[in-house]
Design a protein that fits this description.
- Helices cover 30% and strands 24% of the residues.
- By secondary structure, the chain is an alpha+beta fold.
- It has two domains: 7-196, Fructose-1,6-Bisphosphatase, Chain A, domain 1 (2-Layer Sandwich); 207-329, D-Maltodextrin-Binding Protein, domain 2, CATH 3.40.190.80.
- Helix 1 (7-15) runs antiparallel to helix 2.
- The longest helix is centred in the N-terminal third of the chain and has 22 residues, at 24-45.
- It is globular and about 60 Å long.
- The mean pLDDT is 90.
- The structure holds 2,5-anhydro-1,6-di-O-phosphono-D-mannitol and magnesium ion.
- Magnesium ion (MG) is lined by residues 92, 115, 118, 274.
């Protein structure tokens, strides 16, 4: 029987790959793993507790916040604040970033951005949701408190990123820029165990994932591309939880699209803690991620924390093809 490799073991082992690593990033990834286990426990027992439903609040970007979102947000903040490895966080659920005081005068080098529970419209109906995170090295002086510039970095500056999918089983997938690995939570021992090594996205796949209900609200080039996917008899899959939809595509190949609509002229999804971390993962697995205006997601300038972006992400062959459609049918001058 193969020996089980736990997430903690794997992370510590990988630390050796970074010659000047001080263990802080290792510690941070472990903290996120712990928070994920706590969130997983609550997501799993949500039906048993009165934790479901809307908390009658709106988040910083105007969406309704549900109780589990708040719980997940709190747990991630708690775990990261008390570890001393992180000097601040920015979350979908908080309007501004949160700066942490240095613990024991330890100057921490990293900030963490996250969407604590993505796809929250799925919570009430027991469909998979996820946590998305990204880690940046701070730009500000490590002796002081962190500042906005630490968070307003392009995706190309990500040191690590990942997601947790609370599905039929719970999976944590992350990358530190040297490939992508996945860990499945074994509830019997309470550990994430290495289950998918060096994940590679197929060059093409049989799935396209888009909210086709907005078809008439998309620009003409996007409608043409979607028609083309349908002509090819590709299968449409759309859960409404980006983590789940992108996860399927990462493993089976395909393309996920969230273009601009009349309601969301700049796209709906958030660049900092949704598009960038997932684009980092998909690129690390050999895929591509661009905006529907054809800019590489990871190179988009970050202007404010809750900035939105359009996105086309997935198998490289399919993203390239979508790009060709946009170049052919739109009036946008490609960058
Ligand atoms: P959330 O962070 O408020 O849950 O919203 C993000 C989610 C994504 O997971 C998903 O892809 C998208 O919103 C679905 O939006 P729509 O219902 O407009 O298709
Ligand atoms: Mg979200």
């Amino acid at each position: 029987m193969n020996r089980i490799i736990t997430l903690d073991e794997f992370i510590i082992h990988r630390q050796k790959d970074f010659p000047f690593a001080s263990g802080e990033l290792t510690g941070l990834l472990r903290d996120i793993g712990v928070a994920a286990k706590i969130v997983n426990r609550e997501v799993n027992k949500a039906g048993l507790l009165n934790i479901l439903g809307i908390a009658h609040q709106e988040n910083a970007t105007g969406d309704q916040v549900q109780k589990l979102d708040l719980f997940a947000n709190e747990k991630l903040i708690d775990c990261l604040k008390n570890s001393g490895e992180c000097c601040g966080v920015a979350s979908e659920e908080n309007e501004d970033f949160i700066a942490f005081p240095n613990l024991d005068n330890k100057a921490s080098k990293y900030v963490v951005v996250f969407d604590p529970l993505d796809g929250s419209s799925n919570i009430d109906v027991n469909v998979s949701v996820g946590t998305i995170f990204g880690i940046y090295r701070r730009k500000s002086d490590p002796e002081g408190i962190c500042s906005r510039e630490d968070f307003l970095q392009k995706g190309t500056e990500l040191v690590a990123a990942g997601y947790v999918l609370y599905g039929t089983s719970t999976l944590l997938v992350y990358s530190t820029g040297r490939g992508v690995n996945g860990f499945t939570l074994d509830p019997s021992i309470g550990e994430f165990c290495l289950s998918h090594t060096d994940i590679r996205i197929p060059d093409r796949g049989n799935y396209y994932s888009v909210n086709q209900g907005y078809y008439l609200k998309f620009d003409v080039e996007m409608r043409r591309y979607i028609d083309y996917c349908s002509d090819l008899n590709l299968m449409l899959r759309y859960i409404g939880s980006m983590v789940s939809d992108v996860h399927r595509i990462l493993f089976q190949g395909g393309i996920f699209l969230y273009p601009n609509t009349r309601k969301y002229p700049l796209g709906k999804l958030r660049l900092l803690y949704e598009c960038n971390p997932l684009s980092f993962i998909v690129e690390q697995a050999g895929g591509k991620a661009i905006t529907c205006q054809l800019e590489r997601i990871l190179e988009v300038d970050m202007v404010h924390l809750h900035q939105r972006a359009t996105i086309a992400i997935g198998s490289p062959g399919m993203v390239d093809e979508m790009k060709e459609f946009v170049e052919r049918y739109s009036t946008i001058v490609p960058s």
